[in-house]
Amino acid sequence: MTRSDGRNGVTYRDSGVDIEAGDELVDRIKPLAKATARAGVIGGIGGFGALFDPKAAGFVDPVLVATTDGVGTKLRLAIDTGIHDTVGIDLVAMCVNDLVVQGAEPLFFLDYFATGKLDPAIAARVIAGIAEGCHQVGCALTGGETAEMPGMYGSGDYDLAGFAVGAAERGTLLPDRVAPGDILLGLPSSGVHSNGFSLVRRIIDSVGIKLDDAAPFSRGQTLGAALMVPTALYVHPVLALARAGVLRAAAHITGGGLPGNLPRVLPEGCAALIDQPWAIPPVFGWLAGAGGVSSTEMLRVFNCGIGMVLVVRETDCDHAIKLLLGQGVAPCHLGRVIPTDGPAAVHITDPDALFA
Q: Coil, strand, or helix at residue 318?
């Protein structure tokens, strides 16, 4: 074939990949990444790998901790609503919240952005959210990968994955010595966070409500905007307790809810008794009612208002609460750790009453 420029043959752009668009995105990203720089970062974005010196970050004998996660089908809502600015915060939160429960400080973050046809403006908004999430927790955005893959994604679709690396001094990793009698404190979620959106979308479809309709559970917001509130970042409050020596364990409440995540930090012979009710945020009450979802199913799919559970000694509880309030987080008492002859489990007293 003959091209308009007089040369023969096809180009990469003809096959659907725009190198110039990729270059434009890199130019947009560089200042975003630079703004997240912190002690320990070596070099800048654009190399073949990210370099980080834990000693320069203040660690003496560090153990590295790494996590990876995505945002799931919440991305479908981001694409359908055009709200691309906050899913990057979700991505960071899903990774660093898993990191900090092990007692690790997030150090640096990398992202993977894949799409069928790259729109630099939309991609830049997404990555700006990633940079914002990194900035909020003091984590450097040191690089990532942008993949333009025609034929793999529908028009306007994209996918995200994140990778966080942190460190803790040897001997300080969590969980640590959880025992019967320890107190369970819950930190509030900001909403649905980034799990269970396949069920959320099915409920939306079943009741015939649109994303640009008024949210039935949040005055002054559309349904889409209310559901797109980003995942809460728990790094600072959790590290405050860990560094004060009052935290025995922490569990990030994601897919699987309280029953699926809290047992992951309980040793053999321990179970969690949640016998103190907490206020279920309106979004979860609406999902349960509109979808006819049982309380048991709600609690094993969604966080239901508790995004993080902290385990502290009873004698440290008042001090822990004071530290959390100093971080701007108001915890609630959930219950305590109890002995058990069976596997680690969560026992929730009268779950139906939570959604009454």
A: helix
Question: Given this model, what pLDDT does residue 137 score?
Answer: 98
Q: What distance in Å separates the CA atoms of residue 109 and residue 317, rounded to the nearest whole number?
A: 32
Specify whether the CB–CB gap between 236 and 327 falls below 8 A: yes
pLDDT digits (tens, 9 = 90+) for 106-119: 999 999 999 999 99
- Bridge partners (DSSP) of residue 228 are none
Query: CA angle 115-76-228, nearest 5°?
Result: 120
Distance CA 317, CA 93 (A): 26
**Residue 290, SS3?**
helix
The tens digit of pLDDT for each residue in 128-186 reads 999 999 999 999 999 999 999 999 999 999 999 999 999 999 999 999 999 999 999 99
- CB-based contacts of 245, cutoff 8 Å, min separation 6: none
Beta-strand pair 62-69/158-169:
antiparallel
DSSP per-residue letters across 115-184: ESS--HHHHHHHHHHHHHHHHHHT-EEEEEEEEE-TTTS-TT-EEEEEEEEEEEETT--SS----TT-EE
Q: Which helix (H) or strand (E) holds 113?
A: strand 105-115
Phi and psi based region of residue 228 (left: phi greater than 0; alpha: psi -120 to 50; beta: remaining): alpha
Residue 4 makes CB contacts below 8 A (sequence gap 6+) with none
Amino acid symbol at 308: M
Predicted pLDDT at 240: 98
Count of beta carbons in the 10 Å neighbourhood of residue 111: 25
Q: How far apart are CA 123 and CA 115, in angstroms?
A: 9
Q: What DSSP designation does 214 have?
A: B
